[in-house]
Amino acid sequence: MSVEASPAVHGPAASDVTGAVVDVDIHENMPNLKVLLPYMEPQWQRHITDYGWAGVRSDYPYWPPTAGTGGIRMDAHPDTGGPAGSDLGLMRAQLLDRHDIGMGVLTGQHHFSGMRGWYEFAAAVASAYNDWQIEHWLERDPRLRGSVQIACQEPEAAAREIDRVGGHPRMVQVFLPMITHMPPVGDSFYRPVLDAMQRNGLQLALHVGQATKTPFGYHRYYVEWHSALPQAGMSELISLIFNGTFERYPELNVLLLEVGFTWVPHLMSRLDQQYRELRVEVPWVKRLPSEYLRERVKVTTQPMEQMSLHQLHKYLELMETDEMICFSSDYPHFDFDAPERVVPAGLPEDVKRKIMRENALSFYGVGA
Asked: Is the pTM of this model over 0.70?
């Protein structure tokens, strides 16, 4: 059974995106939690004003030692105060204008789906954040696109939130963190969420975060945990493919953020081999897993690994496509990647355009 897609169109035509670069991972932030109060009912406001809620928390044990402000660029804090990513003017100067970003997709810094307990409050905060994001970001710069933030712990409520704001023309995707204490995203638990995405013509963005653990939990050192993050992306894709998600939702496409791309050839080979041996277990999977990956999944450059032109060509050859990789800066995090430094010198211009712009426009359905 497949779910019928919505004909909804989000965003402009490709000709209206004038900058050379599309950045699919920009982390905007709130100056403080009180900015959400105008968008919340009184019973939820009290959690911030009276009860001292200080934001989403996890048992994440460390911050990267290379940045003394919790993984953030030191120069990204506005002079007026507040956290990095909270000032649109500074973001314009440091990212949008400086690097010729024609379209930038906001992904936030608060993973409401990672909250344990208080699910109704989590849903209320996510809803308030969406309204705040629209008013203070999407409606203030035509280059920006938004992610619908949800609390997926209650899938039906999350679906209602997607229906509420998903039709906004500047919303292009639903954002889900890769939460390892929740089922993987191909599980039937998420069907109300995926149904709502399909109704609203939105894509799915999966992002690692503090709630993303390795199979062994949190390692002793940050470098261990950070190195292992692609494992979470692999697990999510395995779940989506073998649970038949791409067959059930024929218009669904998936973007993996902050896990790089060099692991993709291995996953393609491994899944195809396993499918040939064990496909009797999953008769709803109609094609080789590598075909779903090439056609329905995008991955991102960040964190970009140092490589030669020859090495990049080899990865693209093994993936058998140059249409999977999208540029992402990860602004304003400490390992920010500037677009001018991402691809090695000598890359053919047509391939460079795909990575820096065209693959993302295709993913979001920004037509010619």
From this structure: yes
Buried b (16+ CB within 10 A) or exposed e, 170-184: bbbbbbbbbbbebeb
Token couple for 322: 């140059």
Residue 41 CA to residue 155 CA, distance in Å, equals: 21
pLDDT tens-digit readout, 255-287: 999 999 999 999 999 999 999 999 999 999 999
Strand partners, 101: 21
Q: Bridge partners of 23? A: 104
Q: Which residues have CB under 8 Å from 98's CB, separation 6+?
A: none
The domains located in the chain, with CATH, are: 21-363 (3.20.20.140)
Q: Which two tokens stand for residue 92?
A: 């314009």
Please say whether the beta carbons of 173 and 203 come within 8 A.
Answer: yes
- Digit-coded pLDDT (tens) for 133-142: 999 999 999 9
